[in-house]
Amino acid sequence: MPGVVIVGTQWGDEGKGRFTDYLASDSALCVRYQGGHNAGHTLVVDGEVFALQLVPSGILYPHVTPVIGNGVVVDPSVLLEEIDMLESKGISTARLRVSGNAHLIMPYHQEFDRVTERYLGKNKLGTTMRGIGPAYADKALRVGIRVQDLLDPSIFRAKLDLALREKNLVLAKVYNRLPLDADEITETYLAMVPRLEPLIADTVHLVHEALDANEKVLFEGAQATFLDLDHGTYPYVTSSNPISGGVGPGAGVGPLAINRVIGVAKAYLTRVGAGPFPTELFPGDEVGDMLVERGAEFGTNTGRRRRPGWLDAVMLRHAVRLNSCTELAMAKLDVLTPCAEIKVCVAYEAEDGTRFDHVPYHQSVLHKVRPIYETLPGWESEITEAKKVEDLPDSARDYLKFIEQVAGVPISFLGVGPGREQTIVTNSHA
Ligand code: GDP
Ligand code: IMO
Ligand code: MG
Question: What residues are labeled active site?
Answer without folding.
Answer: 13, 41
